[in-house]
């Protein structure tokens, strides 16, 4: 049976998550990921560098708009777990051990009724952290099983299309985490992937869909119905709107896919981002390249501050 606690040998290699915002919500995510990457290659970093991340976890410097950034905490926890197992930064060992426990407890408390830790895209990293946990108890195992079931359901629903998000999920499906890269098993059998057989849907799919695009954060506010081929991404909706005139936008490439940097000439400022909202008020958990609107949906581009 699949469970959180792993044997001695453990799993391998995001939006950031938060992908919802289409850009990283805090530098602590990259900070933790950098320490983790160096650690799995047995590269020691100075105690002062590790100390900054420890301080952030100890003093809750991983919050976003009042909410816990689960993926940031999970990456920090994985980095600390790697440091502990590698016996690096031994002078900080006690603080590192406490920080691992703190990160694990915060992730567990962030579980939703659906089973996710935070949201669907932060759950793989959260599970990687919990899989490395020596914490006993049925609560941990049940939480992980529920999270895995939710992930498998989302996977079947096509939620994972972005390569970065998939790279965080694959280790979990193989009962591994990034920490296992400390000592990879290069002789492990390789799995050959077979293309899935797709059964054509019997339902009639409309050739074109209509998406209402709104931008209330500019003056005058923009609101227009955009017609695009069924199956188009939100990015293709924006491209069509720009092609029709009266709308313009800019993006910047990232590992998580393109994220919006400007809309209608309005550039994001310090601690700002363009949030993607599905009416009436549901933030999207995917970026513009991955989200595919349905016919009749209203999508709002909202400039928010964090």
Compact overview of the structure:
With 306 residues, the chain is of the alpha+beta class.
Account of the protein in words:
- A hairpin with a 6-residue loop joins β5 (249-252) and β6.
- The protein is of the alpha+beta class.
- The chain has helices spanning 27-40, 47-58, 70-86, 93-109, 123-131, 138-156, 163-173, 234-244; strands spanning 63-64, 67-68, 208-215, 222-229, 249-252, 259-263, 266-267, 272-278, 282-283, 298-305.
- The longest helix has 19 residues, at 138-156.
- α1 packs parallel to α3 and α5 (123-131) packs parallel to α7.
- The two termini are 41 Å apart.
- It has 2 domains: 19-182, Glycosyltransferase (Alpha/alpha barrel); 208-305, Ferric Hydroxamate Uptake Protein, Chain A, domain 1, CATH 2.170.130.30.
- It has a 5-stranded mixed β-sheet with strand order 4-3-10-8-9, with helices on one face. A 3-stranded antiparallel β-sheet has the order 5-6-7, with helices on one face. A two-stranded antiparallel ribbon has the order 1-2.
């Amino acid at each position: 049976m699949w469970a959180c606690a792993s044997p001695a040998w453990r799993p391998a290699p995001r939006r950031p998550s938060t992908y919802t915002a289409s850009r990283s919500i805090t530098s602590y995510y990259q900070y933790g990921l950098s320490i983790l990457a160096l650690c799995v290659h047995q590269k020691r970093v100075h105690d002062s560098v590790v100390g900054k991340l420890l301080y952030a976890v100890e003093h809750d410097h991983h919050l976003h708009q009042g909410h816990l950034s689960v993926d940031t905490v999970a990456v920090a926890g994985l980095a600390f777990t790697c440091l502990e197992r590698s016996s690096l930064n031994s002078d900080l060992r006690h603080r590192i051990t406490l920080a691992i426990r703190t990160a694990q407890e915060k992730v567990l408390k962030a579980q939703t009724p659906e089973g996710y830790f935070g949201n669907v895209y932060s759950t793989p990293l959260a599970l990687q952290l919990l899989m490395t946990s020596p914490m006993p108890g049925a609560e941990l195992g049940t939480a992980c099983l529920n999270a895995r079931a939710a992930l498998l359901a989302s996977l079947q629903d096509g939620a994972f299309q972005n390569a970065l998000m998939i790279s965080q999920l694959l280790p979990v499906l193989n009962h591994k985490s990034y920490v296992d890269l400390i000592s990879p098993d290069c002789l492990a059998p390789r799995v050959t992937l077979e293309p899935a057989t797709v059964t054509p849907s019997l339902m009639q799919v409309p050739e074109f869909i209509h998406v209402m695009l709104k931008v209330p954060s500019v003056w005058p506010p923009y609101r227009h119905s955009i017609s695009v081929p069924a199956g188009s991404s939100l990015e293709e909706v924006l491209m069509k709107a720009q092609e029709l005139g009266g709308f313009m936008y800019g993006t910047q490439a990232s590992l998580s896919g393109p994220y919006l940097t400007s809309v209608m000439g309005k550039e994001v400022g310090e601690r700002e981002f363009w949030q993607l909202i599905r009416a009436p008020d549901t933030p999207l958990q995917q970026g513009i390249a991955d989200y595919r609107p349905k016919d009749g949906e209203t999508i709002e581009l909202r400039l928010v501050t964090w």
